[in-house]
Design a protein that fits this description.
six-stranded antiparallel beta sheet; mainly beta; 262 residues; 23 strands
Length: 262
């Protein structure tokens, strides 16, 4: 009897391994790790506490996450410094099919979904805004504790003397995604960078003195990139300048901001 129970336990364990999704980490043609997917939210990065550890300096501490929603798997880049790529195209949020290859720094991770391997939907067939809205509604204003941004990525909002600047009635504000700090758009120009006179100050070796600026002309709120690297992105797309719309995400390196309207 005990022999039968032991045999059935071994068979069940083997069956679980066969149907369980896996993540393979590659450097060139060399496999450096394989991870079984045992939960529905998996952090990927260089920090020791992540689920899929990638020991490479080009990988951010909390580079991205793989998560399951409505029976499908997705990957979200967590505003990493060097980004995540599929076929040389930078992605912020994408659906994962079995065999999807993600390039992170000098490494490649390959996702294998043992159950949904017959999915035929496109990697890019995803409503970015809808996914974020649904997740935001589920959290009901609470910060997802499974997503911790790099502790070195500090955003400081500094009060500035505005005697010589034209004041406008604020209609919107910029929100720091992970801390919920906010700065009202109450001037014609708000600078973002590491200079002391920037209203939104970012630290970091590669951050420019004035890295970007937000302009308000009384009708449109526009963000303008003043430095090419790290790139300024809106909803994951590199921009030179862009008129901002409600809930647009602004990325600069590992920093993440969002435009909100009152």
């Amino acid at each position: 009897m005990f022999g039968t129970i032991f045999f059935l336990t071994k068979v069940f364990t083997l069956y679980k391994k066969l149907i369980m999704s896996t993540i393979k980490v590659m450097v060139g043609d060399r496999e450096i790790g394989t991870h079984s997917v045992s939960k529905e939210n998996i952090l990927v990065g260089r920090a020791p506490e992540v689920d899929v550890f990638i020991p490479n300096l080009s990988v951010s501490r909390k580079h991205g996450r793989i998560f399951k929603k409505n029976g499908k798997w997705y990957y979200e880049d967590l505003c990493s410094t060097n980004g995540t790529y599929i076929n040389n195209s930078r992605v912020t949020l994408c659906q994962l099919n079995s065999g999807t290859e993600l390039t992170i720094g000098k490494c490649k991770i390959i996702f294998y979904d043992r159950i949904s391997s017959k999915e035929t939907s496109s990697t890019y067939s995803i409503n970015f805004s809808k996914i974020l809205e649904e997740e935001s509604e589920q959290k009901k204003g609470q910060v997802d504790e499974s997503i911790k941004y790099d502790p070195t990525a500090v955003i400081k909002i500094t009060p500035i003397q505005t005697n010589n600047k034209k004041q406008i009635k604020p209609i919107a504000y910029v929100e720091v995604v992970d801390t919920k700090e906010k700065i009202n758009i109450s001037e014609e120009v708000v600078y973002i960078g590491k200079d002391a006179d920037c209203k939104i100050r970012l630290n970091g070796f590669l951050i420019g003195a004035k890295h970007a600026k937000i302009e308000y002309d009384g009708e449109n709120i526009k963000i303008i990139s003043l430095k090419s690297f790290p790139a300024v992105t809106v909803n994951g797309t590199k921009i030179t300048e862009r008129i901002l719309k409600k809930d647009d995400y602004i990325g600069i390196g590992s920093y993440r901001l969002r435009i909100r309207f009152f």
